[in-house]
């Protein structure tokens, strides 16, 4: 499935335990159709001491969520919106906000 959201996009969670939260996409996993969002789906990891991390303990970190559970927040209108694709006169493909029809950025 083609993902219409990318790394560093601002998104809002639309369903699940973190519904309504906003954050930046830290990474995306297109093979599984999942994204990791800053401050969303935070889980506790119990870690043992190792050479890389000598301090053991409980670490909090973000876990992936399905991309269908998040919507892009339009930088112009500030609303969570669906994303469309359009072509400019020069032939460049761009992402477009479906609510305000403004260009989000170049693809």
Overview of the structural elements:
The chain has strands spanning 10-13, 22-29, 34-37, 42-47, 57-62, 65-66, 70-73, 80-81, 83-87, 93-97, 103-106. The chain is mostly beta strands and 107 residues long. The chain has two domains: 1-73, Roll (SH3 type barrels), CATH 2.30.30.30; 81-107, no CATH class. The chain contains no helices and eleven strands. The protein has a six-stranded antiparallel sheet with strand order 6-3-2-1-7-8, with no helix packed on it. The protein is elongated, with a radius of gyration of 17 Å.
The helix/strand series, from N terminus to C terminus, equals EEEEEEEEEEE
Largest β-sheet summary: 6 strands, antiparallel
Termini, distance in Å? 16 Å
Rounded mean pLDDT score = 91
Roughly how much helix do the residues carry, as a percent range? under 10%
Q: What portion of residues belong to β-strands?
A: over 45%
CATH architecture of the largest domain, please? Roll
Quickly count the helices. 0
Using only C-alpha atoms, the radius of gyration works out to: 17 Å
CATH C-level label of the largest domain = Mainly Beta
Domain tally: 2
Query: Which structural class should the secondary elements be placed in?
Result: mainly beta
Q: Strands of the largest sheet, in order across it?
A: 6-3-2-1-7-8
CATH topology of the largest domain: SH3 type barrels
Number of E-state strands: 11
Q: What is the 3D shape?
A: elongated
Which labels suit this protein?
mainly beta; 3-stranded antiparallel beta sheet; 6-stranded antiparallel beta sheet; 107 residues; elongated; 2 domains; SH3 type barrels
